[in-house]
Amino acid sequence: MVSDTTRPNPTNRRFLEPLHGNPVWPPPIWLMRQAGRYLPEYRATREEAGSFLSLCYSPKMAAEVTLQPIRRYAFDAAILFADILIVPDALGQAVGFETGEGPRLDPITEEAGLKGLDPEATGEKFGLIFETVQRLRQDLPGETALIGFCGAPWTVATYMVGGQGSPDQAAARSWAYRDPSGFQKLIDLLVDVSVEYLSGQVKAGADALQIFDSWAGSLPDNEFGRWVIDPTRVMVERLKARHPGVPIIGFPRGAGGSTAEFVTATEVDGVSCDTAMPLCAMRELDELGVAVQGNLDPLLLVTGGEALDRRVDEILAAMKGRRFIFNLGHGITPPTPPENVTRMVERVRRSG
Ligand code: 1CP
Asked: Which residues are identified as catalytic?
């Protein structure tokens, strides 16, 4: 946490300041899924690419869609355009994206299925992602930080085991209950591969990392330590040993009352809070010594108007003077009018 990781930020990238222990105001701002279907220029590049995965694996086009929201809104950070399911795809569990339907994988539901996964095979596909990062570091404005990312082992496992997104992640949870030692092998493999993947992104030019645990909230508290906290803690420990100055943000979505324990046990430098996290709880997280990121409801960006303004002001007032990064509680949704994003960014930047 801060006492271990604070160091001067050798760049002029304001986004990094709260993560190194220094509050800055107005707070830095970026948005989860800031590249995406709400932008007409994204839809055009996506169409040119043909499929979602060809977009992810084309360094030129993936860099282009990463830059699009930076050109429009001058966010303080860009996030590499890729997906958390690149990891299973590169391991050999082919991922398909059906338009409008989300990802589809051939499910792995027991230990024997792990034989089909090959960490040695990830090089070619990971190499394309690292090339995107390299291009981005060259093309981004000097003051814009670049965030690399991956899915947390638990969340990636929910897709690998379920074969698609699900409302309750029942397939992964039931393997974990039925055969914890077999499921542990899948988690351990994802820890190893994800550390290499993130380390490669740092070597290629990422300034900070975010680990997305979008389904952390589906586990009861007696399972949360083993499948959410432990894998993330090990990843943070290994990444810090290799890249001591590179801050790591955790996003244990839905973790609620277990979030403080997540922060202390994993030693992340920042925690991204979902929409349901009370602002008073976000202040308590700051008091643990981490930067706090969040947590506007993405639906307010669709609604716009005074309801949007009011909540932006409430969040800013609650977090003023803290190590805070303005963001959403989850990703931007496709119906978001781009001008509502402009309105919000201006309001955050004008806040004194
Ligand atoms: O063009 C399209 O139609 C594809 C939509 C899309 C996009 C724009 C998908 C499919 N992934 C992405 C990009 C993406 N995904 C980014 C890029 C950078 C940015 O934020 O701008 C990132 C960080 C992600 C991460 C991701 N993918 C998460 C974690 C964050 C979250 O939203 O909870 C998850 C769960 C995924 C899986 C995924 N990929 C795509 C979809 C539709 C989904 C969700 C599937 C489901 O659960 O049903």
From this structure: 33, 37, 46, 83, 159
Flag whether 317 is in a domain: yes
For residue 63, being part of any structural domain is answered with: yes
**Total domains, the chain:** 1
- Is 36 a pocket residue for ligand 1 (Cβ < 6 Å)? yes
Q: Which amino acid is at 256?
A: G
Q: What are phi and psi of 117, to 5 degrees?
A: -100, 130
Probe target for ligand 1 pocket from 31, 32, 33, with the most ligand atoms within 8 Å of CB: 33
Q: What is the 3-state secondary structure (H, E, C) of 16-29?
A: HHHHCCCCCCCCCE
Residue 79 near ligand 1, beta carbon < 6 Å: yes
Q: Please check whether residue 8 lies inside any domain of the structure.
A: no
DSSP per-residue codes, 270-295: EEE--TTS-HHHHHHHHHTT-EEEEE
Longest dimension (CA), the chain: 58
**Does residue 81 line the site of ligand 1, with CB under 6 A?**
yes
**Helix, strand, or coil here: 80?**
coil
Other Cβ atoms less than 10 A from the Cβ of 304: the count is 16
214 lines ligand 1 (CB under 6 A): yes
Tokens read off for 254: 């839905």
Range of the domain at 238: 22-350
Dihedrals phi, psi of 29, to nearest 5 degrees: -140, 135
Kindly report the protein residue whose alpha carbon is nearest to atom 16 of ligand 1.
Answer: 83
CATH code for the domain of 270 = 3.20.20.210
3-state secondary structure of 45: helix
Q: Ligand 1: does its nearest atom lie under 6 Å from the Cβ of 154? A: no
Q: Report pLDDT digits (tens) over 127-167.
A: 999 999 999 999 999 999 999 999 999 999 999 999 999 99
Identify the residue whose C-alpha is closest to ligand 1 atom 8.
Answer: 36
* pTM tops 0.70, yes or no: yes
**Contact yes or no for 160/109 (Cβ under 8 A):** no
pLDDT digits (tens, 9 = 90+) for 239-278: 999 999 999 999 999 999 999 999 999 999 999 999 999 9
Radius of gyration of the chain (CA): 19
323 within domain boundaries: yes
